[in-house]
Design brief:
- By secondary structure, the chain is an alpha+beta fold.
- It has a single domain, classed as hypothetical protein PF0899 fold (2-Layer Sandwich).
- It contains two helices and six strands.
- It has helices at residues 2-20, 41-51; strands at 26-34, 61-67, 70-73, 78-81, 98-101, 105-112.
- A three-stranded mixed sheet has the order 2-1-6, covered by helices on one side.
């Protein structure tokens, strides 16, 4: 389960940002996870619950925003959603190779206790 190592890295980054903010307590962590990132949100939540104790994020809320896969069609000059990497434009039915969103895995926001 690579989500465990991902969450350990996230919590390391959260701890650094919390320290920089002059705080010791995190209230909420918001992550953005793309549908094509290869990360399972439920496994990430499970990993958070396993590794958060003893960190500034202990007792914090983890919010995971799912980012749908979006592709660009050069022929139609439009963006469209697709559930997987086999992305056929719904207008012209040509396949796109340009992924615009959906592979994200990022710390979007952090709510910490003010010092």
């Amino acid at each position: 389960m690579h989500e465990l190592s991902i969450m350990q890295s996230v919590l390391h980054q959260v701890s650094e940002e919390t320290r920089k903010a002059g705080s010791t307590k995190v209230h909420e962590i918001r992550l953005r996870v793309g549908t094509l990132s290869g990360v399972v949100a439920e496994a990430l939540q499970f990993a958070f619950e396993a590794v958060a104790p003893g960190t500034p994020a202990e007792g914090a809320k983890l919010t995971i925003e799912t980012v749908p896969a979006r592709f660009w069609c050069d022929d139609c000059r439009s963006e469209f959603a697709s559930p997987d990497m086999l992305a056929e434009c719904p207008q012209c039915h040509k396949f796109s190779r340009e992924l615009r969103a959906g592979r994200e895995l990022e710390l979007a926001a952090l709510e910490v206790e003010s010092a």
